[in-house]
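Protein 1 of 2
SEQ + STRUCT:
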Amino acid sequence: MRLPRPSPALVIASFALLLAAEGVSFAAVKAATAVNIADPTTPSRLAHVDANGALATSATVPGGVTVALPRLPFRVSSYAFADGGASYWQAPTNATLAITEIRFSDNANGPASVFLYQYGAASASDCAFAGGSRSLGYYFVPANDTVVETMQTPLVLKRLAGAPYYCLVAFASDPGNTGTGLDFTVGGYVPSGSFTPAEPAAAVPGQPPHR
């Protein structure tokens, strides 16, 4: 048996019903905006972007979540004398520092070798050696040249075991014994604690002070 051909009125009515149904679905999706993110199957499940741009939710998030460290940037310059003695980048600190750049500039006529250390310190007032030490690297700086180390993965400095503070110490030497030094710059950000650039004070026992 052949079915009768639908009338034009029935076709128009069916098309209008389809548009109405799609409109309801579209409105439900639009309820999840750029600020609120909704589960399309359970609208009560919401997450939102807060005023600081962070994604927030009241639900338990399964799996591993990495918390972004706050980026409080710094870039501080000092001077490392190329006489084999200790030169201090800054006064002692107990903040956690994430180093992303270390730069040495040699303005002398001879090359310089630099050994960089983290030293434990007993107080915030001087860099007298107390606690442990940590070797951070060796740098060879050609005459009248600059060496820059940039780090995709930051070098993180924290308090060493047995010392409430720490200092960044450079031991530079010039084989030509020209008696000059190097500009010494460190940059990065502060994940935790308070770091205020300040002039270093005392020296490691047996070593000349930062001048």
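Protein 2 of 2
SEQ + STRUCT:
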Amino acid sequence: MPSAAVEPRKRELGRGDELFLVAAFALAFFGLRGLYGAFPFLYTLGIAAVLAFVAWTVRRLARDENLSLRGLQLLRAGRLWPAGVAFIGVAAVLAAGWAHCAAVQTALQVGEWRYERLEGARATAFDAQPAAVTPKERAAAEAALRWLSRARRWGALPQRQLDLPIAWAAYFAGDEDAIAERARTLASDGGDAGTAWSLLAKSAERRGATAAAVAAYRNAIDATPDDARAYLRLGLLLAGGGDLAGAGEAFAAGLTRAPRDADLAYNLGVVEAMRGDVEAAVARFRQALAIAPGHVAARENLAAALAELERARAPR
């Protein structure tokens, strides 16, 4: 007996609908993924699916003659019913939120992409003699500052994780007002204000504004009292300006908070030698070598200081 022909199953979605749903889902997922730290992966998948379905339904309302959703008549004979009007209103609100999230996400992604170009410059920024900012680095910094600031400004929720990257970008872009603003924000929010204040200080140093640099380094010390870097830079700045007493106080204060920092001990020894206390200088050079036996400058200055003591003690 011949078998009955089986009719092929009718496709529930056309190819165009499938492509539309995939595109809408991808756009929604991109716009929400990781935003504000409040959209984890699985949560974002669910929201993106809902938004894609809403967008597809709106497309059908514009295309079809009749449409119902779970027993509710949205559209009949090309005319919207009350449920359809309500659906369009909800869809408009969701679309506005979706567009806003996409704008923030775009600004964030572009800003972070440009900020990554500063990785090498950031690694050497606090060296004694950092390399000059190249035109490419300055362009990347200006773009990162612009886009990250937009992401922070446009965000519906606070994005405190952007404050320090904005401060770094502002440093390489030469925008001291932006650095100071972010430093104050980090201080009030309990973030890494010390780094931001140190960046402001180095920027002020770069343009020869010693008083502003000293004030910024003091703010950095207040924000992060255990960070040896700020004490060291403050002491070097004061010593370069002839304030040996102030430099010695900065190095000594740093050593009380970071007793294992060889550079602080060494520079305190240099200051002691410049002030004429060679025995105190010898003690500090030895302290530096005990911390870091390979500290070449401490070893050389120790030898010179010991030779000076021998000359002073030799009978005349």
